[in-house]
Design a protein that fits this description.
heterodimer; A: alpha/beta; Rossmann fold; six-stranded parallel beta sheet; 21 helices; B: alpha+beta; Alpha-Beta Plaits; globular
């Protein structure tokens, strides 16, 4: 119950809040502290929804989850010094995966800046290299404009995070209404030239073994629609990066699954054998290419990206399509339809046959196989579910098995691989998608990094379903130690994990427990039927590995499907 | 590789130098002048040709971030 509000003079904090409202912000994930108090004072009793997390890192991850699953800008805030630095990982995470996030931090008052004042950190400098922009606002009259410009920048072109740092005396200063409208945004999207589109179509028409790849740049629903249309038009075998999962129509028989280190055999072999690679909105990450000089070395590389700096960064590009993915794919379709439209169904069937079912370990020693369990989970999951994962083995198993209807239905820390992301990102996804079922699939290592967010779930009754795949190990690191470090298991054993159900209970959150294969059907059904937040603890066989695997820096011939 | 930069935010000069370091290139010469609204800088970089190409592309990218606004 909020007591009656005593009238108070309006401040810079109110200007920031008004600017956020003007940008359509409906929720902020944050944590208060000394210097940001004027902003929190403005929030007091204000209809803007503020979600109090229990660590600032979770605020940044939640904002990322909100943005990833909605396409809208996620917003987080924190106080100066440690509050601000705790946001940093989430901002780098957003930068790596091109996610629009605006972070608001306060700083010490201007006369103290540079004096090593209490809780002072130069967060603008710290984040300068890992955001699209870090903006220090020193003039109260500029608050309104600069906040709004931060949103424009976060959304524009290739999206990304922007940090706004505001000294506390600027936040405390008397309210100044919007002085000038924000500078106009010259956000004219680049358009792939007609010559480049024609070159792409020529490459397709002269191809015998083309393959298409969708990356995170094809997340937008318009791009997804165009990508699916192109694949259907040509009978084209196609794959996605982890950020592009869901771009492929789950019912298209020519979809090959995920590409890369833990991608499917069919997708990796098909790209390797291709004579034309059509890459849309992807950046040829090393987890996708392996050894770059051996990646699709016989192929003409047709690369579409909105960010010109991605061309030739890793893989030499033969045809550069500088433009938005949706517009570019539509242009290719139009150009194709103006003449001969080839079909590649036979090649697509051959491509599919290059693979086979995902290798999966079976239950051993009475333990449950995590992959067997995930197969059960995804089969039973309600329609329109959103899945957020943490980072590690469970992330790869989920990416291999979950068939999202759209890229925004699968939320994962791909480029940065931030452990601790999955649970708070799922909380963000719940706020962005009210009414939709949201699952956080976490490992026991990553979950413990942001586990106190159980308090956030409890306070706001966030209807997230937490699936905790507990193999009592830092499984992915352990897998590499087993395969590449002669089984020297240095600092990966988590056999002294706490009882997670007891912890959930301490936060008054319902929990369910699967100790072995026999428990799975009943406990899973009860967990799914439970209305409200809940945790499902799944005790899994600790030695299960992620297959297939192409070792880091390896080539497709190195693809392993088992330890032997 | 030479690069001439014109930006609004003088801190971009530092960002470019940091980026060169990350790309294992050396900023062998930096001349920079700032007014209240404009910073110009001339850089001379040394390093591996491929890394210099990547560096140029990334500097172009961060310069573009400023250019979305029409004053």
């Amino acid at each position: 119950m909020i007591p009656a509000i005593t009238p108070r003079p309006r401040t810079g904090g109110d200007a920031v809040l008004e600017a956020l409202e003007r940008e359509g912000v409906d929720v902020i994930f944050g944590y208060p502290g000394g210097t940001i108090m004027p902003f929190y004072d403005a929030l007091y009793g204000h209809p803007m929804r503020h979600i109090l997390v229990r660590h600032e890192a979770a605020a940044a991850f939640a904002a990322g989850g909100y943005a990833r699953t909605s396409g809208r800008v996620g917003v987080c805030c924190a106080t100066s010094g440690p509050g601000a630095t705790n946001l940093v990982t989430g901002l780098v995470d957003a930068m790596m995966d091109s996610i629009p996030v605006v972070a608001i931090t306060a700083n010490v008052r201007m006369p103290l800046m540079g004096t090593d004042g209490f809780q002072e950190a130069d967060v603008c400098a710290i984040t300068q290299c890992t955001t699209k922009a870090s903006i220090l606002i020193t003039d109260p009259a500029q608050l309104y404009t600069k906040v709004r410009e931060a949103f424009a920048l976060a959304r524009s072109g290739r999206p990304g995070p922007v940090l706004i740092d505001i000294p506390t005396d600027v936040l405390k200063a008397p309210y100044v209404p919007e002085q000038n409208p924000p500078r106009k945004v010259n956000d004219v999207k680049p358009v792939a030239s007609a010559e480049s589109v024609k070159a792409a179509v020529d490459a397709i028409r002269s191809s015998h073994r083309p393959v298409a790849i969708a990356g995170g740049g094809a997340r937008d629903p318009k791009a997804v629609k165009a990508f699916r249309e192109l694949c259907a038009l040509l009978g084209l075998p196609h794959t996605t990066t982890i950020c592009g999962l869901g771009a492929s129509d789950p019912n298209d028989v020519h979809g090959l699954g995920m590409l890369g280190m833990h991608g499917t055999k069919a997708s990796n072999l098909t790209v390797h054998a291709a004579d034309v690679v059509l890459a849309f909105g992807m950046r040829f990450d090393d987890r996708v290419t392996g050894r770059p000089d051996r990646f699709a070395k016989e192929a003409t590389i047709v690369h579409n990206d909105i960010d010109v700096s991605e061309f030739d960064k890793i893989i030499p590009t033969h045809v550069k399509l500088h433009g938005d993915a949706a517009d570019t794919i539509k242009a290719i379709i139009a150009e194709l339809k103006s003449g001969h439209v080839p079909r590649f169904d036979d090649w697509a069937v051959q491509a599919k046959a290059l693979g086979g079912p995902l290798p999966s370990d079976v239950s051993k020693d009475g333990h449950l196989s995590a992959t067997d369990f995930l197969d059960q989970l995804f089969a039973a999951m309600p329609a329109k579910a959103i899945v957020s994962t943490d980072v590690g083995q469970h992330q790869m198993w989920a990416a291999q098995r979950f068939k999202p209807n759209a890229p925004r239905d699968f939320c994962t820390s791909a480029g940065l691989g931030s452990m601790g992301f999955g649970f708070p990102a799922a909380i963000g996804a719940c706020f962005a998608n009210p009414g939709r079922p949201v699952f956080a699939i976490c490992g026991d290592g990553g979950f413990q990094m942001t586990m106190p967010e159980l308090a956030t779930v409890k306070r706001y009754q966030v209807p997230v379903k937490i699936v905790l795949i507990d193999n009592r190990n830092l499984g992915m690191v352990r897998q590499w130690q087993e395969l590449f470090y002669d089984e020297r298991y240095s600092a990966t054993n988590l056999s002294d994990n706490p009882d997670f159900c007891t912890i959930a209970s301490a936060y008054d959150i319902e929990s369910f427990r699967i100790n072995g294969p026999e428990d799975a059907p009943g406990q899973l059904a009860a967990f799914l039927a439970y209305s409200g937040p809940a945790l499902l603890h799944v005790s899994c066989y600790p030695m299960e590995l992620v297959w297939p695997m192409i070792p880091a820096g390896g080539v497709v011939e190195d693809l392993m499907e088992s330890k032997g | 590789m030479n690069y001439d930069l014109v930006v609004g935010d003088p801190r971009t000069v530092a960002r470019v130098i940091n980026m060169a370091h990350r790309f294992q290139c050396r900023a062998s010469r930096v001349d920079s002048t700032s007014t209240d609204t404009v910073t110009t800088a001339h850089f001379e970089f040394a390093g591996d040709a491929k890394q210099l190409d990547r560096l140029r592309a990334q500097i172009d990218r961060i310069v573009q971030f400023e250019k979305i606004f029409v004053s």
